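User: Predict the complex with NAP.
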Amino acid sequence: MKEYKVALLGCGKMVSALTLGWKDHVPFHHYTFTPSKTRAKDLAQKLEGTFVETLEQLPPCDIYLLGCKPQNVQELATDLKDKISKDAIIISVLAGVETKRLQELFGPSKVLRVMPNTPVLVGAGVNALYFSESFSTDEKTFFQKSFESFSMAKVFDQEEMIDVITGVSGSGPAYIFEFARILSEKLVSMGLERETALDMVIETFYGASKLMKESNDSPLELRNNVTSKKGVTHEALEVFKENQFESIVSKAIDAAFKRSVELSKS
Ligand SMILES: NC(=O)c1ccc[n+]([C@@H]2O[C@H](COP(=O)([O-])OP(=O)(O)OC[C@H]3O[C@@H](n4cnc5c(N)ncnc54)[C@H](OP(=O)(O)O)[C@@H]3O)[C@@H](O)[C@H]2O)c1
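Assistant: Here is the predicted structure with NAP placed in the model:
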């Protein structure tokens, strides 16, 4: 099988997680670049790839994986545009930067947008994929399988769905971590040792996620299984209801979606 040359432009948390995830499953040779060099050197070593000190040293690649922050993309494109062949493939993990803009900035028409989340670090991530029009079916299958080699990968036919999903699967781990933080702080305030409190909360989240994944019951049915009338859980859920927990969550997701759309228009 052909070995693809893949340029990693940015080697932060997300690109490291994705590439270390697919390292043993895909025929890629990685070239790593970051402005401050340190993270590029480290990642090249872990991937058995090649560190490049400057973009001038980057050889022509088949795939360019954009992993900088959205605000750095313009600068990166200015430095790179003339080096990228029109037949190359751009993969972007940048939140809120649309395919059309990436095509204008970098040149190639084949753009794969990916919205991953941080659990890819432990092989339990969610990747939302959107392919621009010019990919062949074989190419789409190849890339979907590459992402599925280490985490879930779902393909969406409409690019707008990436903005919708960003506020749930992309940002979602932060909501779970926040909920876990609040619950463990509460346990500490009620007398538990911090470490014990955190262990109990983490294991509760882990167990509930595993149960949701492995059971045929819906989240609603699983919730009802722990909720007896006038029981302990019922009391807590009533407080959620009185304080409009569902509406708070819905407003938060609307705000995340609005911000994702704003970023993609800016
Ligand atoms: N974190 C998440 O949960 C998450 C989820 C979904 C999508 N994303 C997207 O993933 C992207 C990266 O996020 P991250 O959390 O991995 O960020 P990060 O850890 O801060 O890494 C950003 C990387 O970009 C590099 N960089 C900065 N300017 C650059 C330039 N001009 N050219 C090439 N590389 C450049 C940085 O280089 P130095 O090492 O030299 O600083 C760093 O290696 C973002 O666009 C974000 O929207 C993140």
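The longest helix spans residues 194-214.
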